[in-house]
Amino acid sequence: MKVFISRDMASVALGADEVARAFADAGCDVVRTGSRGLFSIEPLVELETDEGRIGFGPVGPQDVAAVLDGTHINRLGKVEDLPFFASQQRFTFARCGVIDPLSLSDYAAHRGWEGLETARRQTPQQVVDAVKVSGLRGRGGAGFPTGIKWQTVLDAPAGDKYIVCNADEGDSGTFADRMLMEGDPFCLIEGMAIAAHAVGAGHGYIYIRSEYPFCIATMRAAIEASAHIVSPFTLEVREGAGAYVCGEETALLDSIEGKRGQVRAKPPLPALQGLFGQPTVINNVLSLAAVPFILAEGPEAYAAVGFGRSRGTMPVQLAGNVQHGGLYEIGFGITLGELVNAIGGGTASGRPVRAVQVGGPLGAYFPPSMFDLPFDYEAFAQAGGLIGHAGITVFDDSVDMAHMARFAMEFCAAESCGKCTPCRIGSTRGVEIMDRIIGARDAAPVTVSEAGSGYLGKALYSRAPDRIDVSIDAQATLLRDLADTMKYGSLCALGGFTPYPVLSALDYFPEDFGANAPVKEAAE
Amino acid sequence: MEDFVTEWTARHGATRDRLLPLLHAMQEEAGYIDDALVPVIARALNLSRADVHGVVTFYHDFRRTAPGRHVVKLCRAESCQARGGAAIEEAAARRLGVAMGATRADGQVALEPVYCLGLCAIGPNALVDGRPVARIDAAALDRIAVEVAA
Ligand SMILES: Cc1cc2nc3c(=O)[nH]c(=O)nc-3n(C[C@H](O)[C@H](O)[C@H](O)COP(=O)(O)O)c2cc1C
Ligand code: SF4
Ligand code: FES
Q: Would the pTM count as exceeding 0.80?
């Protein structure tokens, strides 16, 4: 009996290795795949039968017999027929969870390398044009058109050009890069080989964060296994070292060069003077992994889905306190509320959703009243937020938004590269302001007659020469002023975007900052 | 470790861009990067000591003192917080007898912060000596405590 069980890091964290061992001990032929991407049914076992692959999940090692005779109560039927999967548009993740990630024959049997073969029949300019026509925009956060970036590198005169894959995926709430690299590594390699053909690059780097040991091992093995196919293009993996800011493209380049991961001022653009001063394509994993589909199926097929200027699909990641968390690839335009409630099934705790953070630690917090927002770069920017890497972190009503605002500042302080003052110093001042706001909020309310007594009163009315006005109003004003300085005075988005989570928390959840509670709207 | 540096650079090269891979390899071998080795690395890669020191101290991964025999890296990022991470962090510190970011006095276990492991829908999560553990609750903490007592 042939069974399929994921070897994805998340599946393993949920006990997939023990389950796989139990099935192997029972004499089954166990194929380890990537994850299908719905964690509420993991560990998942799929049996090969005459009707196709029948899923059972979640299951444990003790369930082998019941699964093999088909009586287990968590029988799911065909996994791809579950509503969570049937409603997706899996362009990039078509093979993830289905194939053995390191089997070249599996990859080829599932239309692998078709994109590369098409690209090799075309001139570099034709490939770049195809990427332009597809409308693909960078999936790493900024949404810059990928075809235009490639054109710049193609047009740059130079002997050595590089393809760099940004696999630093530091944003909390995101795991699509990880899942793709573990579940379909040849897809990323194919995308990079197409990029190399398009711009004339000879060598590529995949910079993977050290927190992803499974990815690093899988990518290294996949590079070795496919070297003869992508040759003369060569690839290597570089391991990060626990610095969030190294996801910023120029800091990442400095890190590959063996330096502190500090952000470079632009210009020069990495496309013209990137790695070792040479023209460099630097793209996110998902941007590069979208390219094989675009070449194989034609750019029009990719551009046919989407919303406004956001074309194609986005692998959305549902995370945090969500019932059906996982990876959901869908064309742009789906609303935030559909994703959180219809697809994600609301919170895992069963309590009302109070806030979602979209786009990682630099993304804004939105209340359920904004759930009709369509997933689209422009719509999110207009609403004072960002899509980023499309991670959605769901919080229930137990969240303290002042605490989350403090955390955003704390994270910025911990991860600042130190190059510019608004971020390096401002983030620490921001933590202090949040501490004062939280302190004042949690102290008993002060009335005028009590002024001068008590902890807060002493702080407010002391004659100490260094006294500051620690009232919530004064501190909130200071916070906005600081956010302004960080937003406009920072060199990169770490300092520049930290105000998004902080100010959105303050604007949408003022009651957590000690303001008088407004009439609570019913949480959807 | 001096021989290790010599052998490693002979095999993998001694250009500047080898610095991070070398530091990773050294830490893998010895558990940490001893300050006393900074001049050795600097000589091997033809860099200044200040340069090497700057890199070692910039990256959170590189330790300058010996780690605990066991290392528990607990995720502190938003998605794990949304699933009760802060309470688990407190409980972990109590259960393991060591503050977040510290190594227990007997050297048996270190509790280190990590910001996201990419397992964000099944938190709170940790890496226990490199092994991923999800949905950490009080019972899971008990199992981890037993594991790191060995
Ligand atoms: C602080 C910071 C962290 C970032 N982290 C990542 C990351 O982990 N992965 C990523 O692809 N892009 C990240 N970016 C965006 C990159 O700078 C860059 O825009 C991206 O790699 C370009 O690739 P794309 O056009 O394919 O998106 C980060 C940016 C900043 C400012
Ligand atoms: S904003 Fe922060 S991380 Fe970005 S360059 Fe300035 S100091 Fe570095
Ligand atoms: S936030 Fe903890 S694993 Fe991502």
A: yes
